[in-house]
Amino acid sequence: MLQTDQQPRQRRLIIAITGATGATYGVRLLEILRELSGIQTHLLVSEAGVLNMHQELGMDRKAVGALADVVHNVRDVGASIASGSFTSDGMIVAPCSMKTLAAIAHGLSDNLITRAADVVLKERRRLVLMVRETPLNLAHLRNMTAATEMGAIIFPPLPGFYHRPQTIAEMVDHTLARVLDLFDIAHTLAPRWNGLQPPDEKKAAR
To answer: Which domain range does residue 143 map to?
Structure first.
């Protein structure tokens, strides 16, 4: 008789930080997930991602790694997350450089980030790519199309202004709230849209 594990599977998310601007999205995401119970994070940071974290946030690899449950070396293609037998809820690349996007779109698996993304796609799990580049050339657009056709979600971290953010931190949290929604992770990061507010008649009359 087969033995079954009666314990519920722990939720796991793979987080990758690559060399595009916007390291704050990946770091803040780790901070949020650390505060939530029952979600194990597996972190990958590319060499260019390390440079960006230092430039934009003044943080080094060790400081960011301390926010994750497990840290993997991007060169270790034999790591647990390189196999489809490693169960997870999916992967978020925050931010996602155009180089990483291209490697994922063409199935290169040239490092552990792109191999883990390839595994997530082949196992039909959720892959969210927070791509950062502007303006976009045709290669960028075609790679986004290819990744989408394979099942990835292209999620440029574009700020919303309808909730009238007062700080950059509020804009970052609002974007990450939408990302967490894609994984059905409960949060209170940002207010939800409740429809247009009626105009203030006194202000409108001025």
So the answer is: 11-205
Tally of domains in the chain: 1
Query: Residue 3: inside a domain, yes or no?
Result: no
Give the CATH number for residue 200.
Answer: 3.40.50.1950
160-190: per-residue pLDDT in tens? 998 899 999 999 999 999 999 999 999 999 8
For 122, the token pair is 């082949």
Residues 6+ apart with CB under 8 A from 2: none
DSSP annotation string for 38-95? TEEEEEEE-HHHHHHHHHHH---HHHHHTTSSEEE-TT-TTSGGGSTTS--SEEEEEE
Please, which residues bridge with residue 93 across strands? Answer: 16, 129
> pLDDT of 74-125, one tens digit each?
999 999 999 999 999 999 999 999 999 999 999 999 999 999 999 999 999 9
Please choose, from the candidates 176, 185, 122, 121, the residue with its C-alpha nearest in 3D space to the C-alpha of residue 153.
121
Would you place residue 205 in the very low, low, confident or very high pLDDT band (cuts 50, 70, 90)? very low
Q: Looking at the domain assignment, is residue 6 inside a domain? A: no
Give 202's contacts (C-beta < 8 A, 6+ positions apart): none
